[in-house]
UniProtKB/TrEMBL annotation:
<keyword id="KW-0472">Membrane</keyword>
<feature type="transmembrane region" description="Helical">
    <location>
        <begin position="214"/>
        <end position="240"/>
    </location>
</feature>
<protein>
    <recommendedName>
        <fullName>Stage II sporulation protein M</fullName>
    </recommendedName>
</protein>
<dbReference type="InterPro" id="IPR002798">
    <property type="entry name" value="SpoIIM-like"/>
</dbReference>
<feature type="transmembrane region" description="Helical">
    <location>
        <begin position="186"/>
        <end position="208"/>
    </location>
</feature>
<feature type="transmembrane region" description="Helical">
    <location>
        <begin position="99"/>
        <end position="119"/>
    </location>
</feature>
<keyword id="KW-1133">Transmembrane helix</keyword>
<dbReference type="Pfam" id="PF01944">
    <property type="entry name" value="SpoIIM"/>
</dbReference>
<keyword id="KW-0812">Transmembrane</keyword>
<feature type="transmembrane region" description="Helical">
    <location>
        <begin position="261"/>
        <end position="280"/>
    </location>
</feature>
<feature type="transmembrane region" description="Helical">
    <location>
        <begin position="156"/>
        <end position="179"/>
    </location>
</feature>
<feature type="transmembrane region" description="Helical">
    <location>
        <begin position="286"/>
        <end position="307"/>
    </location>
</feature>
């Protein structure tokens, strides 16, 4: 590529980045890192094909400014843990809302398949949930305790076992994204079919309302599995669709971003495990308003933190940056 064409193709991006640095605009650290990676890629290209050019000198200078900005941002972070959960992660996750939507649609498609298949074929639920679970549940239904399985075991033992298992599922959903997202799609699909079969199974016995006990912990648990699936798709799609990066750089970035999303789910899995270990066993004895109150609050927390709050925070930052640019 001729130097003039190279400059013309990237000029607007460089100028925009330079203005952001010189005007001291508060840039999201993840966006700053992304811009810096693109800039260093351009710098490497210029070093190879345009040695000694003014373009190379300009990019060297811009890369140096960006490096200083990143270094200062790291030094000014007084409480990394609090800032990560309050500001850094929500702003970072805003860019992946579309992938979260895809993960949700994949999961819900599987739920619908599970529902329809179970309603039209009595043997399907046994194929998905297993004979032992189905037989045990039928026995519990006949004994008037359809959710007796959640009363078994110690509270602490159930809490720890369930939490560890849920985190394991999340890590698997993320890790299998390395197979070009296909592995993650499989995890989302299989869990969705299981949920659809489970719901339809109770519906066929006329006790669908009893599943509200499961949703005490399941609201967070199922939601966060979808979010972990989003993490896997972020990693897998980064290799399939590298955009302006090389595939190696894109995959490295996607893997780091996906891992950050998985880490964000761990506290929610702990909460879900606590509810299942200590509260779900009393679900049938709870007044309905307490039971549905827990479900509603759980859903609100997930939707607010992963969807609404990132949007609000992003809008607030955009307004702040716009004001800085015009001041």
């Amino acid at each position: 590529m001729r130097e003039a064409s190279f400059v013309r193709q990237n000029k607007e991006k460089w100028i925009g980045f330079e203005k952001a640095l010189n005007n001291n605009v508060n840039i999201n650290p993840d966006d700053l890192a992304s811009y810096y990676i693109q800039l260093t890629n351009d710098l490497s290209y210029a070093q190879t094909y345009y040695p000694g050019s003014k373009t190379l000198l300009y990019l060297n200078s811009l890369a140096s400014q960006a490096h200083q900005k990143i270094y200062i941002t790291k030094r000014e972070s007084k409480n990394k843990i609090i800032s990560f959960w309050r500001d850094e992660f929500p702003l970072f996750f805003r860019q992946y809302h579309s992938i979260l939507l895809y993960a949700f649609l994949i999961f819900m498609s599987a739920v619908i398949i599970g529902v329809v298949s179970t309603l039209n074929d009595d043997s399907f639920v046994r194929l998905i949930l297993g004979d032992s679970y189905v037989n045990m549940t039928i026995e519990n239904i006949e004994n008037g305790e359809p959710m007796a399985v959640y009363k078994s075991g110690s509270r602490m033992g159930s809490f720890l076992g369930i939490t560890i298992n849920n985190i394991r599922v999340a890590i698997i959903a993320f890790a299998l994204g390395v197979f070009f997202s296909v592995g993650t799609i499989y995890v989302l699909f299989s869990n969705g079919i299981m949920l659809g079969s489970f719901i339809s199974f109770f519906y066929t016995y006329g006790i669908l309302e009893k599943t509200s006990t499961v949703w005490l912990h399941g609201t967070i648990e199922i939601s966060v599995i979808v979010i972990a699936g989003c993490a896997g798709l972020v990693m897998g799609n980064s290799f399939l669709f590298p955009k302006t990066y090389s595939r190696r750089v894109a995959f490295t970035k996607g893997a780091k971003d996906g891992l950050k999303i998985v880490v964000s789910t761990i506290p929610f899995f702990i909460i879900a495990g606590f509810i299942e270990g200590f509260i779900t066993r009393y679900g049938q004895q709870m007044p309905w308003f307490i039971s549905y109150g827990i479900i509603f609050i759980s859903l609100f927390i997930i939707v607010y933190y992963y969807i609404a709050y990132p949007i609000l925070l992003h809008k607030a930052q955009s307004i702040q940056n716009s004001n800085l640019n015009h001041s």
